[in-house]
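note to self: dont lose this again. the chain is below, predicted strucutre after it. 235 aa total, dont forget to put it in the shared folder this time
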Amino acid sequence: MSVCDVIIMGAGGRMGQTLAGLAINDPSYRLAGVVERPQNAASLDRYDCVKGTEMEDVFAKCPGAVIIDFTAPEASLKVANLAARSGNPAVIGTTGFNADQMKELEAAAKQGPLFWAPNMSVGVNSLLQVLPKLVEALGPGYDLEIMEIHHNKKADSPSGTALKLGQAIAAARGEKIDDDVVGDHTVYFLGQGERIEVTHRAHSRETFAHGAMRAALWMKDQKAGKLLTMSDMLA
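---
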């Protein structure tokens, strides 16, 4: 298997450092580049690779490297569009995109290989595939509730993960919901005289980092066309 070159956005932050550490310590990857905001540029001194505060420059110096981004919606959209123009595949784990921003992500995916997941945990995405089967088996006689617990710095509420769980459940019932970070998510199925609880607990951000790295390894061989997700990769 060929080595996967990666570029880490926000490499001076907590998630960025976690991702960079995984790339440095796993022979399947090579840390090709790191990017940070100008005010945090000094945090990149620890890395022995291409580094900078202008993503265009770093992308150009790392052709073909897979970009991994866990930042904010506006920044991630810029990453997606620049990645499409530079020919770098991109893996985005940012949450909080609104409907218009999601359309922009989907448009960028037609121009370059792009992967997005509101939760990069392989475990919780496997759960998303199992839950609809449980909903169908139990039938309409069970009320459904979702509870989530996050640390106090979580920006979006409900989280992207909670929304995805809700959407998976709603779709199994033929309904629609219009409307990661470490946390617990529990789905309750409340019936007459019984309660079923399905819980996913993420104990550290490495859970999401490992999922993103796995996605990067997969994305290096993917083509543009549609916005790829965890369900595509797991399939």
